[in-house]
Amino acid sequence: MILERTFLLVTHLSAKNWRNFRRIDVDLAERQFIVGPNASGKSNFLDIFRFLRDIAKSEGGGLQKAVNDRGGVSKLRSLAARKDPEIAIEIALGEIGGTPEWRYALGIKQGERGRRLPFVSYERVWKGDTQIVSRPNAEDEADPQRLTQTYLEQIGSNADFRVVSRYLQTITYLHLVPQLLRHADQIQGRIIEDDPFGQAFLERIAKTSERTQKVRLRAIEEALKIAVPQLEQLQFTRDEDTGRPHLQTLYSHWRPNAGWQREDQFSDGTLRLIGLLWSLLEGESMLLLEEPEQSLNAAIVTQLAPVIHRIQKRRRRQVLISTHSDDLLGDNGIDGREVLMLNPSAEGTEVRVAADVEDIRALLEAGFTAAEAVLPRSNPLHAEQLSLID
To answer: What tens digit of pLDDT does each residue of 7-22 get?
Structure first.
């Protein structure tokens, strides 16, 4: 399937009763950092967009599978939902700071009888100011079984807003686990759909056209020469006998061509950096990165924010990044509007834009970095007591 370039960005997110969150209502930036203490919901925040992608997928997707893959409606619904059983998500798409070109809204409930399947409590789509979809409609009322599927997943029903469906289908999530990639042949395990952990990362490279593959690997090679001591070359290759894809790097060595290593010899940091850079170069739609700083040298992490900024500006790609890293958020170019703070409470996690918090905004305007102004607010209240455990 050929996807037209749309340059859409998700400019606003609203949600109700989604996992940790009783309510979410925030504007999004082109580069968005998500910070908060452990178990505050950073992964669950990113999963909202994966969920919409899974519904929209033309091959094996749909509402029923997306919900079932996450354990059912009862696992998705926030514990703070109380008497309101409905899960709701709404996104606005367009240009940051502009009037939305599209809005898509979806409500989900669980059936009360029989198999208790999830069903669409409402589905609405706006193109500009004009509402073009409003469900349930007369056909749904005549045949309630239709509400077990969204229009988003149906080619025959989403023609008027297919640009939204196609955009959501191409959302990418990456949390590369080096061990899965390094030992893929030995593990020989089932690869999770869409391969979020990079087990089939080499296959993704192999399926890319040779010209595009060389351009991307050349750019990654230049970055690795800076980040990895003694590295001179990065190449894609295949086994002569099996045809299996591999990456190999050449390190400076006193014997010519004696310094070649394959991915099973790469460090965790090298593998994660290659995966991160490839993903940034790979597409135009939203990219979700979970703690990209893991396994990387602190000096490299300090450069991730400007690297992401430069690549996304060239490709018009929105990037959402969850992180705990002082080094990543220490870049002076990070604006307070680019940081979302997750604050857990008994009534569910609250999501706020850092620039909207008065004392944090004052610190940022005084020249403090996001790491200095925001991260201390995300620390557990009594973390120091861990040292007292005997």
So the answer is: 789 999 999 999 999 9
